Amino acid sequence: MTLSDIAAAVQAAGVGVSVVGAAESVAVTGTSCDSRTTRPGDLFVCKGAAFRPAFLAGALERGAVAYLCDETRAAELASVAPATPALVVDDLRRAMAVASAAAFGHPDRDLPVIGITGTKGKTTAAYMLRSIVEAAHGDGSCGIMGTVETYDGTGRAASNNTTPEPPDLWRHLANARDAHLAAMVMEVSSQALKYDRTLGVGLTAGCFLNIGLDHISPVEHADFEDYFTSKLRIFSQADTAVVNLDTDHADRVLTAADASASTVTFGVNRPEADVFADELSPSEEGIAFTLHLGAGRRRVQLPFPGEFSVSDALCAAACAQLMNIDADKIAEGLAATHVPGRMEFYRSADRRLTVVVDYAHNGFAFESLLSTVAGTFGDAQTIAVFGAVGGKARERRYELPEVAARYVDRIILTSDDPWTEDPADICREMEGALPEGFPHEVVLDREAAAERAFELAEATPGRSVVLLLAKGHEAYQLTKDGFVPCVSDRELARRGVAAHDLAHPVDPR
After folding, report:
1. CB-based contacts of 36: which residues, under 8 Å, 6+ apart?
2. Strands (E), 118-201
3. Going by C-beta distance under 8 Å and a sequence separation of 6 or more, which residues neighbour residue 54?
4. Lowest CB count within 10 Å: 79, 201, 354, 458, which one?
5. 215 pLDDT band (50/70/90 cuts)?
6. Model-level pTM?
7. Nearest-angstrom CA–CA distance, 182 and 385
């Protein structure tokens, strides 16, 4: 692929482009937007408010053969690298996506790619589908890009964004193709759809789980309509739309799904859906249900509870069926699913203490999770530990305490990525949303907050459930000083259960 070929592809996508320097003779083998990871043969993308000309110089030192920039930076960068060929465009985001797809050889054309969007459940549904694919094709046969990690057949790494920028996204797709993976499963965020990160990715299936109020702020989506419209864009690039009939605004979602060539529906207790579940049997160990796939039916056991988990499983099953995976392997994969930091249960040996670690971080997810826990552990004292992020999504400061107070016995408010704000101020706002007199405490240090929850649990003669919410697998706090390491909720859960087991040994007889 030459730079001239890429310029032609960008222009064909409706982006204005000017070529600087000789383009026909420049061979491009990839793209990058981080000079630290640039490889020989890359087209380097000069993007972002924090971009500095020194980044281009660093990329050229590492082997970049040309660069892509918008018109506002063209003159400045030409003075930094006067002999380097360049593409100057009037829409950098679209150009970056199109150029990356072309440079990496459109790997989506040789690999089944499943995209999943929704206000909650993206990660769980993605891991469920990965587990199914690996049940059918073997360990390591399915790639994943999402909130927790990225695996593309060449290695695993923690993710920085739910959906990466186009140079990284297309590189991962190319790696998955070259590694002959059976599929790639992607979480697709509303921001990725709005800002064209996934532009041009051909999806075997585009899945819509649900929609709720979230990510409404000056730095995310201006209003719900912008958020909803962004998510609906997934269907424009999918061969098959996979739609949850139980979602709010289902009629509008189904209308938007007409942008895909075909539609598959799913739902709980929805015999009119193409894929549905009934005969749900919840327990503290998880939830069982009957899965209906066409004329076939299988009994499925999930290792975590909740009707919302069944909904995620139906999405995964519908996608697996599109990939010609049989019902037995679907049931096997679902039963073996493990999702880091999502609906993870840690139980003491005497069963008096249960710790739930979950990434639930908006009112929609809180409602689903906490109502399930309240219904499953009805006789237990429940203590929830959570905070709210700074700098965005202010609605969570009022939604989370209001929802939690309906289902738990006590709340401990703490820090959760306060960013540029004082966590004490955030917690004060959250306190104001609690019913008057509701039992709660404010413990700003998250590790100390968890320890306080376990202390309260130990003081209870009966059973207790401690919920560590909103951080999941994460082992950092975003503060005004940047990302600061912290103990993950998963590790805090292990510590709490270990301390209980040490204080209350169980006689092995």
Report:
1. 58
2. 142-145, 149-151, 156-158, 183-187
3. none
4. 79
5. low
6. 0.89
7. 39
